[in-house]
Write a structure and sequence with these properties.
Elements lengths: L15 H11 L2 H8 L2 H14 L10 E5 L5 H8 L3 E6 L2 H14 L5 E5 L13 E6 L3 H4 L3 H11 E13 L3 H10 L2 H10 L1 E2 L6 E4 L1 H10 L2 E9 L13 H14 L11 E8 L1
Helix pairs in contact: 3-11
Length: 275
């Protein structure tokens, strides 16, 4: 990747692995919006917003990369907050949904939609973004998270942030699946690699230490980390109740940086600064 690349030549050609991942998510585009509108996922998104917002650039018009941004929720939220956003995803169907939503909201001037792969950002110049976000676990599904972090670090300016959410390898519920089956070998493989078998595409779960080491190796300094959600199950299906939702959110925000509680967290979320 070289500085000074032509910005108007956007990614349209995907590698074989990226195409396979794109097809997988193409098949989920029609149900994704309904799923993510449920109270549980609204809670996760609000936790994320409260976590990352204080690290975002202060200047209006700052350029943000929404890597693996699916149907554009974060791109639209960022655009409404005054940022210029580039939304990149491997799924054409997800991007079609995103573009329709962006057009309907009148945000076409603030958000550029690009078919592309987070593991191959060669069509963006070095240091061309004021912040890069990989939220809702694209690093866990991209097939090569090491390359993805390297690419994101390269296109992000110095002293700017990279925020990412990943699946939590040491979530107790994941271990229970193997324990109940008495699958010692499967549990050992999962704990070692974090890779889950038996799916159309592989997915990778991470330990906190693994993410931190990956960031550090790419010149990134972790500024903040949380686990989420920690207490959503306590709602017992009552997250539709605004008072219950607010109380759970308050508890999440008060305790999600406490690593001793992360065993119940589905995902881990990190904000790092490029040195």
């Amino acid at each position: 990747m070289q500085n000074g690349r032509e910005e108007d030549e956007k990614m349209t050609v995907l590698g074989e692995q990226a195409r396979a991942i794109g097809r997988y998510f193409d098949g989920r585009a029609d149900t994704y919006e309904e799923k993510m509108s449920r109270p549980y996922f609204r809670l996760l998104r609000e936790i994320t917003w409260q976590h990352i917002r204080r690290f975002l650039p202060r200047q209006r018009g700052a350029r943000v990369l929404d890597a693996g941004g699916a149907t554009g929720y974060w791109s639209m939220r960022l655009a409404r907050a005054g940022y210029r956003v580039v939304l990149v995803d491997v799924s054409e169907e997800m991007l079609a949904v995103a573009q329709a939503k962006i057009n309907e909201a009148g945000l076409g001037g603030e958000i550029e939609v690009v078919l592309g792969d987070v593991t191959d950002l060669r069509d963006f110049s070095e240091g061309s973004f004021d912040a890069t976000l990989a939220l809702e676990e694209p690093l866990s599904f991209c097939g090569d998270p090491e390359m993805a972090v390297a690419e994101m670090a390269l296109v992000t300016k110095r002293d700017s942030i990279i925020a990412a959410t990943v699946l939590n390898r040491f979530r107790s519920r994941e271990h229970e699946k193997y324990l109940k089956k008495g699958d010692v070998e499967g549990l050992e493989r999962y704990l070692r690699s974090g890779t889950t078998d038996g799916r159309e595409i592989s997915r990778k779960s991470f330990s906190a230490e693994e993410v931190e080491a990956l960031f550090i190796s790419n010149g990134l300094e972790v500024a903040s980390a949380i686990g989420k959600p920690l207490f959503a199950e306590a709602a017992g299906g009552r997250l539709e109740d605004k008072a219950v939702f607010s109380k759970i959110l308050e508890m999440e925000l008060g305790h999600n940086a406490n690593r001793s509680l992360w065993g119940t967290a589905e995902t881990l979320e990190f904000v790092a600064i490029k040195a």
